[in-house]
Each structure stands twice: as C-alpha cells, then as structure tokens.
Design brief:
alpha/beta; 17% strand; globular; TIM Barrel; 9-stranded parallel sheet; 43% helix; 258 residues
C-alpha cells in the first residue's frame, strides 16, 4: 500500500512539473505586431500625423520623389524603421501610374538591378524593401531574382506586400538566402475609421494567437483615418501585452549556405 502511495505521489509530481513547464514556455512566447505605413515620400495626407506617433513603426518610402530623402531622415530621428517602397508593375493599369523608379517585367536583369540601386540611394537608411503594387512583377521569377540580388548585396531584407497569390518572393528569397517576410493584413482597404480599427483588432488578435502579425496602412486618401485609428488603438495593443516592433524583427533570417 505504501509503495502504491509513493508511486501515485511521484506521478502527481511529474504531472505538475510537466504542466508547469509547458505553462512557462507558453508564457515566454513573444507576442508582436508590426505596422508598416506605405506611400511615404510625397507629402501625402496623413504624413505629419504618422510622424507624430511615438511607437516603433516602419515607414515605406517611395523613391525619387520630392520628400523621399527628407522623410527617410525624419523617420530615423523619429525612431521608425525605413523601407524602400519599390514601385513594381501590376497586372491592370498603366505603367506610368507607378511613378519614378519603377520596376517592370520588360526590363533586363541589369536594368532592374541598376534601378533598384538608384531607388535605394534616394531613400537613405533603408533597412529593407517592400513592393508598391507589383502583382505582375512579383509573380515574375526573373524580376524577383534581379531584385533579390541587390537586396542581398546590400545586406537588406524584403517584405512581400502580398499583392499576388502567385508571388515568387518567398521561393526566390529562400533559394538565394535573402531574409524576407510577408504582409498579413491590409489595414485600410476600406477608408473608414471603424473599418480600420476592425483591421487593427484583427492584427492584434493574430499577434496574440500566432505570436506575430504584420499590417500595412497608407498615407494619402486613407491617411487621416489610418493615422487617427493607429493613434487611438496603440494603448489597446500595449494593454494586451503585445509589442509593436520594427518589421525587421519579423523576417525569416535563414541564409543559404554555399
């Protein structure tokens, strides 16, 4: 009887240790979200409001525009992470809508690499690149290999804005050993404060449930609603125990070994 009691006690203690260890591991899983603001670099609506936010946002700046350099320098002082918001060809629409510095599928590999380098040079301090539009270009493996060559030579990373279900970003990045990640949620496809707050709530819930989530918002047409929604929602993110982090902390950093 005594032996049975000792065995039962040992099993009970083992169960408590195992459950306690599992609870401790779960408690240590970081919960993070990143918020990227696209279309900076041209003084669009909401730009000043974004710069007033005291949180480590990531700003994606269009190249070769009137405030590209200025916004990049301001962003660094504000504690934001900077990306080049690389204009890339999309399926439906005119190429000229992309603006200066665009990457199109009819360009040669060397033309693409030269243009990406020029674009990066116009956005000082850029830590990575994400695509502006790009449903056609990101689906083209030749284009993405050329872009990734420059990303790799500059020791940067690439964020797939996920504008195409046939994107080759992750395939090419993995093959070339380029750090990358992917957008989870567009915050402001609907230009209303309530709709954007709903998307921010989705971002928060994914950050809690999956441990990380990346959302993209914009200056411009949606700029005022997006900036105001973010400002009002940040305390809720903090209260939930979720950390807002630069998107560089979300990248897959596995390097290809030669």
């Amino acid at each position: 009887m005594k032996r049975f009691t000792n065995l039962s006690l040992a099993v009970a203690l083992l169960f408590v240790v195992c459950v306690g260890s599992k609870t401790q591991v779960n408690a240590e899983i970081p919960k993070r979200v990143s918020i990227i603001i696209d279309d900076m670099g041209n003084g669009l609506k909401g730009t000043e409001e974004i710069f007033s936010i005291h949180a480590p946002l990531t700003v994606a700046i269009m190249p070769l525009l009137r405030t590209s350099k200025q916004d990049a320098l301001r962003a660094e002082k504000a504690g934001f992470e900077v990306l080049l918001h690389l204009p890339m060809e999309f399926f439906h629409g005119k190429k000229e809508w992309l603006g200066p510095g665009a990457i199109t599928t009819d360009m040669s590999t060397e033309e693409i690499k030269k243009q990406v380098r020029m674009d990066l040079d116009s956005v000082p301090g850029a830590k990575g690149i994400n695509n502006h539009m790009g449903s056609k270009a990101t689906s083209d493996e030749k284009v993405m290999r050329a872009v990734m060559e420059v990303v790799k030579e500059r020791h940067l990373f690439f964020v797939d804005s996920a504008t195409s279900s046939d994107s080759k970003v992750s395939k090419v990045a993995k093959e070339m050993g380029v750090p990358f990640t992917k957008r989870d949620i567009f915050l402001d496809n609907q230009n209303s404060r309530k709709a954007i707050e709903r998307q921010l709530n989705r971002l928060l819930n994914e950050g809690i449930g999956k441990g990380k989530s990346i959302g993209i918002g914009h200056v411009g047409l949606q700029g005022m609603n997006t900036s105001q929604a973010i400002i009002s929602f940040l305390p809720k993110i903090k209260k939930a125990g979720v950390e807002v982090v630069p998107v560089s902390r979300m990248v897959v950093k596995k390097e290809k070994r030669d």
